């Protein structure tokens, strides 16, 4: 299978990591680079290290539209932004697609399929790009969550997470001696966490199976915290409990 080497450029580290996690779920995509620095990304493109760039528009130092002007036709681009007003500007540069944040996985997949079709049409007889271990995104055992200020991110080890609770468009990440509230949905968090050991057991809760102290009917206990198990999620939980392998 022809793998498309993807470069993710976003000045918000969390947004970039979310896109990298999406890329990891699609068989014909691989992460060639992930950066918050558009100037570094431009060098990678000029060196021919990417087939497809997921590019944020609003960035310091170099905006996405300036990036497009400089990179020319060296690679294909999918724009990502929270501002729909830029869509027409982007299409002037023949971008593949335009993704409006927050980006759902199904919408991301459609954009990726458009990119695959466009790139294969340009080089129908090209040999598949070899994928070396160094080109693949490393499997991490941590994540970064957005802090209270724009450029503050806190590192959280997976092993320290007891559970997460939805609070509207925010969520609380509960650790042994700390409760972090961050602007993120439970659905977005689920995309970042390995499953198992993490499992959604309710529309408002994700738990770590490693932290369960007891299951009693439709209630799971993480330490002293009693968490309800939603009907939609019961079968998956009980299957993992009965057959953890």
Automatic annotation (TrEMBL):
Annotated SUPFAM superfamilies = CheY-like (SSF52172)
The record's annotation in InterPro entries points to: 2C-system_Tx_regulators, CheY-like_superfamily, LytTR_DNA-bd_dom, Sig_transdc_resp-reg_receiver
- What does the UniProt keyword field contain? Phosphoprotein
According to the entry, every stretch annotated as the HTH LytTR-type domain falls at: 145-216
Give this protein's Gene Ontology molecular function annotations.
DNA binding; phosphorelay response regulator activity
One Pfam match, given by its short name, reads Response_reg
Q: Give the 4-aspartylphosphate positions (modified residues).
A: 56
Q: Where is the Response regulatory domain?
A: 5-116
Q: Which SMART domains match?
A: LytTR (SM00850), REC (SM00448)
Key word Translocase present: no
Name used for this protein in its record:
Two component transcriptional regulator, LytTR family
From which source organism is this entry?
Hymenobacter mucosus
Its taxonomic path starts at: Bacteria, Pseudomonadati, Bacteroidota, Cytophagia, Cytophagales
